[in-house]
Amino acid sequence: MAIRLDGIQLTSLSERGDVLQKSDQTFVMEVSNENSVPIVRISSGSHQVLTFSLGDLGASVKVCPAGKSAFMVHVNGSSFILHFQTEFEMTRFQNIVDGVQQDLRTKQKSVFEERTDEASATQYFQFYGYLSQQQNMMQDYIRTSSYQKAMLQNHEDFTNKVVLDVGAGSCILSFFAIQAGASKVYAVEASSIAQQAEQLVKANRLSDRIIVIPKKIEEISLPEEVDIIISEPMGYMLFNERMLESYMHAKKWLKKGGKMFPTVGDLHVAPFTDDALYMEQFNKANFWYQQSFHGVNLTSLREPALQEFLRQPIVDTFDIRICLARSVKYTVNFETSSESDLHRIEIPLNYTTHQAGAIHGLAFWFDVAFHGSMQSVWLSTSPTQPLTHWYQVRCLLRSPLYVKQGQKLTGKVVLIANKRQSYDIDIELECPRSGVRSTNRLDLKNPFFHYSGQPVQPPSGTYTSSPSESYWNQYPSNGMEGNGGHLNGYGSQDMASLSQNTNVVPVANVDPISHTSVLPGGSAQHQYFMPSSVGMTTSSFQSLTYQQGGMHKQRNRTGGGGVSGGGGGGGSGGGGGSGGGGGSAYQGLSYNHSGGMQHQQHRGPSSHMQNNNRHGIRSLLS
């Protein structure tokens, strides 16, 4: 039923707001619903003077009160004042407008809300609201120091500049921007950690320079454009969590010619071989092959279980030599790409294998670059570099492909964004000469966290000479001599000392026992702690030196589940190592007081818990 208001007078206005014409005639206003949208018609008899839809409020139609009995209306470039006979009639029209505006606010969603399930968003922001998760990321030495160096070494890009920090978290990047000379930083953070970030800013007496905005970047309004945008938006396989889209969305506040840190991201994809990993995933499904599990036949679920295990991307690290061909690189330029470019990502694959073997799937890692006006700085998650909490990700094929050295391979990777802040992954590889092809579809939201903390092993068949002979050839070849001689490089006194000082496994919970023996070659020994059903034992490992990917590295086993030597600093202890790297994770690595990695939480929330794993987290030793 239409609402009728009589005695309406009209005044037309110029673009500057001057009165052009005021009508002495009175008109009738009718407001009727058409397809649930209020339509306003102002007429005199059968002649319609003005018609507009309140459904277009905020777009082509703008209305606002003008005094106690008038309303200003702007319709398609023309402005009018509607004069009502009484305040009561003006109030009736005001109520109609208020109702429409409320409906529009209810229906209107931000870009983030349009692309994200409410449950996923709630879990996501809840996860990053914990101080422990912020600590886990901040203690990732590789991640944090790379960001700081990128800003300080490009201080000209920050000096006296306005900066926008997207997903600021604890505001650590905002502090780095101030250190580099920024005059002001807008730190946008949607999780509850924004309150603690504000507290940090005040405690560091920077409230006048770091402004914390507790909202999503898609929903904020800034009073000015910014010179540079900073963020740490990378997830597993670079794209997981879909925060890169929020990072790109922030460009609406970026000045023309402004910079983004990071500037570009490279996703690397390489075919790999790993028989043990492939069989491990298959063997898990054999649990469902039981014909009498407590009297219940489970065999009908074996195939669905196998498909579920194969759909899990595997988060861990590996020796680069398991890759049978050079990686293909897919680059995203954050300064020039748009959000929609990340809704569907297709990566064509072309390889020439440099060794023979069985290809079990595709391995993924990423590098990001900060291209400043003074220097470029790279942050890498490559298996040839110190380990970070992003690790690497591997996606298995449903069936292996067997290749010879020099063989051509083609295929593609397709990542399709979903509303769970993640991607569905389709992988495909084919041997063109034989026509043999293998595929798989995986769910990046549900990874398997496979990292155990053990040093990575080279692939089988790597050695072209006897490893045993290569080891013993390091020592004098005189073998065993008489008294005072040597046996396999050990003096007789050394052997006695070794046997006398070797401790056996304790039979009760006792404090760790330190070995004091000298290791072969006089190498310095290191303690490591191993969980045991009868308590904690200690032993000593010689420093392990190996060649990986053409880079000579040293990793010292200093803790149950930890690695060291990655560039993080000293530190050792049970479950921890030093230096390895880190970043954003769910349940994964954290770092001890001296920079070492420890088993803790990884980056990002997961859809559910599985084997003590979370969405962005790997399976670790407890």
Please tag this protein with its features.
622 residues; alpha+beta; PH-domain like; Hnrnp arginine n-methyltransferase1; seven-stranded mixed beta sheet; 12 helices; 32 strands; 19% helix; elongated; disordered C terminus; histone H3R2 methyltransferase activity; EC 2.1.1.319; SAM-dependent_MTases_sf
Describe the protein's architecture and organization.
- With 622 residues, this protein is α+β, with helices and mostly antiparallel strands.
- It folds into 4 domains: 3-107, Pleckstrin-homology domain (PH domain)/Phosphotyrosine-binding domain (PTB) (PH-domain like), CATH 2.30.29; 119-232, Rossmann fold, CATH 3.40.50.150; 277-445, Hnrnp arginine n-methyltransferase1, CATH 2.70.160; 510-622, no CATH class.
- It is built from 12 helices and 32 strands.
- The longest helix has 21 residues, at 87-107.
- GO terms for molecular function: histone H3R2 methyltransferase activity; protein-arginine omega-N asymmetric methyltransferase activity.
- Residues 266-430 form the Protein arginine N-methyltransferase domain.
- This is type I protein arginine methyltransferase.
